[in-house]
């Protein structure tokens, strides 16, 4: 027993992978799935009351479970046999589902996926005692939406080429033959790219391939560890045949050099932030952040614009601004935007995009590390923030003390959003509107947008 004042010895983590992943644990038997966890797995209890997380199991289903990993307080397993299926169970649309680390909800009908995401947002906020009115839903096509992807390339010890994504929960790559969540313009490139890679002189020099589908053109960027002129000539031929923009990021270490290999070096992919936007499109590079789903992004940007209620010359601060996805639309509506972004290359792109749209006078783009808050938050009428998954704890602490009357928070991680909203509510804000954007159908990822207003004191 630990004595008072004595540091308790750290217990070794108890995690035991069963010898054979398919091995049935004697006492697991059949279980009824109670609900979905926030990562999309089914949750049940075994006969001894231990929690089970079960891949590809749906609420209400009676299943025979195979446990593959045991922990001290819970076990992880997969479905051995479905004894009673959910009415919402559907046949997954991709042959790689279950093995691929990309999708986790293809076995659930799309309506169920969307209800589940709204529930997840509500539950995360409830953990922080924040009540949420029924969140609205932004959604579009269930398949063929993803306009960017990174495909890894490895050559196995048997010289077989692997081109694709990571195996679920592992570092290993596996071959993909299809990826029906990819935009059709990208998916149709998969087979010809594999054939090309199989014909390369030095496929081991190719690390990965970035695909970006702009509204106008598709660009592929090769991450090449060393220049192999014969192989680059093959890729040039491929880009001509498929009407692609082509660049190569070449060299090992910190400073690889980007080079254009096609005959249109002044052309780059562009996208529009709003469906009906007739203005200048936004230019992006493979290295830039780009919202993955064009049509849901239209709706997200339109919602930000509607909830922002821009008045002429209204001062708006856009934090984590990227290449201007929100800044450009807000400025075009009349706001005076101060946009902060941490990557210099994207700040420069934002400035160029503002200039191309005739909005330079309305957008002041600054390169800043937003681990801490910029100084001028209190001068804004509205702060928009769209941080990475880690959220924006420091910024929200500052907003709680000296934030403007309204804050619009776009989030790709509901757990950190809920933590940050708690800080804002403790600082005098009230959550007044929320929506879930189904930016990544067939996966458990969810995007959300909330509006907070400062309460009069
Ligand atoms: C989720 S993206 C949003 C980009 C943009 N709002 C959009 O909709 O396209 C987050 C952005 O935050 C930037 N970022 C991440 N960490 C940052 C930091 N510590 N300081 C400043 N910017 C950061 C990334 O470069 C990225 O552009």
TrEMBL record:
The keyword Iron-sulfur applies. S-adenosyl-L-methionine binds at residues 291, 320, 341, 386. Residues 1-27 are annotated as: Disordered. The active site is at residue 412. Residues 22-81 form the TRAM domain. CDD domains: AdoMet_MTases. Residues 16-27 have a biased composition (Basic and acidic residues). It comes from the Bacteria. InterPro entries: NA-bd_OB-fold, SAM-dependent_MTases_sf, TRAM_dom, U5_MeTrfase_fam. SUPFAM superfamilies: Nucleic acid-binding proteins (SSF50249), S-adenosyl-L-methionine-dependent methyltransferases (SSF53335). The keyword DNA-binding does not apply. Keywords: 4Fe-4S, Iron, Iron-sulfur, Metal-binding, Methyltransferase, S-adenosyl-L-methionine, Transferase. Gene3D superfamilies: 2.40.50.1070, Nucleic acid-binding proteins (2.40.50.140), Vaccinia Virus protein VP39 (3.40.50.150). Belongs to the class I-like SAM-binding methyltransferase superfamily. RNA M5U methyltransferase family. This is 23S rRNA (Uracil(1939)-C(5))-methyltransferase RlmD. It comes from Kushneria pakistanensis. The lineage of its organism: Bacteria, Pseudomonadati, Pseudomonadota, Gammaproteobacteria, Oceanospirillales.
């Amino acid at each position: 027993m630990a004595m008072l004042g004595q540091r308790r010895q750290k217990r070794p983590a108890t995690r035991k992978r069963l010898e054979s992943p398919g091995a049935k644990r004697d006492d697991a038997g059949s279980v009824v799935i109670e609900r979905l966890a926030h990562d999309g797995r089914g949750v049940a209890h075994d006969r001894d009351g231990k929690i089970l997380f079960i891949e590809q199991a749906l609420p209400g289903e009676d299943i025979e479970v195979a446990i593959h990993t045991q922990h001290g307080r819970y076990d992880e397993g997969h479905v051995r046999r479905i004894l009673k299926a959910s009415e919402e169970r559907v046949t997954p649309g991709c042959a790689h589902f279950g093995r691929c680390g990309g999708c986790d909800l293809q076995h659930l009908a799309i309506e169920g996926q969307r209800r589940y995401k709204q529930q997840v947002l509500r539950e995360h906020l409830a953990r922080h005692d924040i009540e949420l009115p029924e969140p609205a839903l932004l959604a579009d096509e269930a398949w063929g939406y993803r306009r960017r992807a990174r495909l890894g390339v490895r050559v196995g010890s048997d010289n077989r080429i692997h081109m694709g994504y990571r195996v679920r929960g592992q570092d290993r790559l596996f071959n993909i033959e299809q990826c029906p969540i990819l935009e059709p313009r990208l998916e149709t490139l998969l087979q010809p790219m594999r054939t090309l890679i199989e014909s390369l002189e030095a496929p081991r020099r190719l690390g990965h391939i970035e695909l970006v589908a702009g509204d106008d053109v598709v660009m592929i960027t090769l991450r090449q560890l060393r220049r192999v002129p014969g192989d680059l000539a093959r890729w040039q031929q491929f880009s001509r045949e498929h009407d692609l923009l082509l660049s190569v990021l070449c060299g090992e270490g910190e400073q690889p050099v980007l080079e254009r290999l096609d005959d249109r070096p002044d052309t780059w992919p562009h996208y529009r932030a709003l469906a009906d936007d007739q203005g200048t499109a936004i230019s992006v590079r493979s290295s830039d952040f780009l919202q993955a789903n064009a049509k849901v992004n239209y709706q997200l940007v339109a919602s930000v614009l509607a909830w922002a209620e821009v008045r002429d010359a209204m001062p708006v601060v856009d934090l984590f601004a990227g290449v201007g996805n929100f800044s450009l639309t807000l400025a075009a509506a009349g706001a005076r935007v101060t946009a902060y972004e941490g990557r210099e290359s994207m700040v420069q792109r934002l400035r160029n995009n503002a200039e191309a749209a005739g909005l330079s006078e309305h957008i002041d783009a600054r390169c800043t590390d937003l681990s801490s808050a910029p100084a001028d938050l209190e001068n804004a009428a509205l702060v928009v923030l769209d941080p990475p998954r880690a959220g924006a704890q420091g910024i929200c602490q500052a907003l709680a003390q000296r934030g403007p009357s309204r804050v619009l928070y776009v989030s790709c991680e509901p757990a950190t959003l809920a933590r940050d909203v708690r800080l804002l509510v403790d600082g005098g804000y009230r959550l007044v509107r929320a929506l879930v954007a189904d930016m990544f159908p067939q996966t458990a990822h969810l995007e959300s947008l909330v509006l907070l207003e400062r309460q009069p004191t």
